[in-house]
Write a structure and sequence with these properties.
There is one protein chain. With about 325 residues, the protein is mainly alpha-helical. It has helices at about 35-40, 65-85, 95-100, 115-125, 130-140, 150-160, 165-180, 185-200, 205-210, 220-255, 260-270, 275-300, 305-315; strands at about 20-25, 30, 90, 105, 110, 115. It has three domains: about 1-60, Herpes Virus-1 (2-Layer Sandwich), CATH 3.30.40; about 65-135, no CATH class; about 145-315, no CATH class. The strands form three sheets. It has a two-stranded antiparallel sheet. A two-stranded antiparallel sheet has the order 3-4. Strands 5-6 form a two-stranded antiparallel sheet. The chain is built from 13 helices and six strands.
């Protein structure tokens, strides 16, 4: 224990680094050796019967840089160990705690609705530390909005990657309906652009080409706007629909009795991710569009004409 900067209880002089100091064996009070010899006892001898124990009044003062580094390293190790000990525990960026430079742990046994965090964690699998806090907010606030950048940038591929196949198929059909129905407009526009590109390579400058470039058909503009709308929808509500599917699947799995290993396997089979589903969905989407456009180029078939006739028929 360090006694520098403390006063001797006998002479009131401040202890120096080289002072000869003795400590009372009963209460721990420090004295100059000479002061102890002069009075022949502890300065707090009259308090010993009351169970007095000397306490360093400087113990709560700021620590040195080396002491702070040592304690911070130890604290960091304790926190890391505690995180590992908490089953499927997830760091939760609580705003109030973040202001103080910290966070709290969402424990595996905590409930989101009537589902344990550990169950959601096993279901989500990949990047669960990003999804569980979003699930937690949705469950506690009942708000459907929780932003997801992967959903915004990758939308339909992300839905199939996370095995939300039904929602992915609906949104994919929504996106493809205009290009399929108005394939003739897309093909004609593409051919005009290609013809202009060939002409520009021979005798037109880029500025000249920009002035005479054909205006995109309405179907093209609408398709782009629909694509942005789908991206925005997945970014804003993707986490909510993912949590809803996870909840439904987990409850269904909970109905059957399984061993721990079987239960974990069932959660990952229903949840986790599927690169194959994503790739198959992408191939099918572009395959269908390509087949429709190829047929339109070869035959000149215009589905929009027949759609217009059907609409006119029902309007009569």
């Amino acid at each position: 224990m360090k006694y520098e900067c403390l006063p001797c209880p006998v002479c009131s002089s401040i202890f120096g680094e080289k002072d000869d100091i003795v400590v009372c064996p009963k209460c721990g009070t420090p004295h100059h050796r000479s002061c102890w010899a002069n009075i022949g006892r502890c300065a707090n001898d009259d308090k010993h019967s009351q169970g007095f124990v000397w306490v360093n009044p400087l113990k709560d003062l700021p620590k040195t840089i080396d002491e702070e580094k040592s304690e911070n390293t130890s604290l960091k190790a304790e926190i890391e160990h505690e995180i590992k000990e908490i089953k499927e525990g997830i760091p939760f960026d609580n705003e109030e705690l973040m202001k103080m430079g910290g966070f709290r742990i969402i424990g595996g046994d905590e409930l989101i609705g009537d589902i344990k965090v550990s169950q959601y964690g096993a279901y989500v699998d990949k990047n669960k530390h990003k999804y569980i806090p979003k699930f937690y907010r949705i469950g506690k606030t009942n708000r459907k909005f929780a932003w997801n950048w992967a959903g915004f940038f990758f939308s339909i591929p992300w839905l199939f990657y996370r095995k939300m196949n039904a929602l992915g198929a609906v949104l994919a059909a929504f996106l493809m309906i205009v290009p399929i129905v108005f394939a003739k407009d897309f093909v004609d526009y593409s051919q005009e652009i290609l013809a202009l590109a060939e002409q520009s390579s021979q005798e037109m400058t880029i500025s000249d080409m920009a002035q005479v470039a054909p205006r995109p058909p309405l179907a093209y503009t609408v398709t782009r706007q629909m694509g942005f709308a789908v991206s925005l929808f997945c970014g804003m509500f993707g986490n909510y629909f993912y949590m809803r599917k996870a909840t439904r699947d987990i409850k269904k799995i909970n109905q059957d009795e399984k061993s721990d290993a079987e239960y974990e396997l069932a959660l990952k089979q229903k949840g986790s991710v599927s690169i194959w589903s994503m790739l198959i969905a992408i191939i099918l989407m572009y395959g269908i569009i390509d087949a429709v456009f190829t047929t339109t180029v070869k035959t000149g078939f215009d589905l929009s004409v027949y759609v217009e006739k059907i609409i006119q028929f029902f309007q009569k």
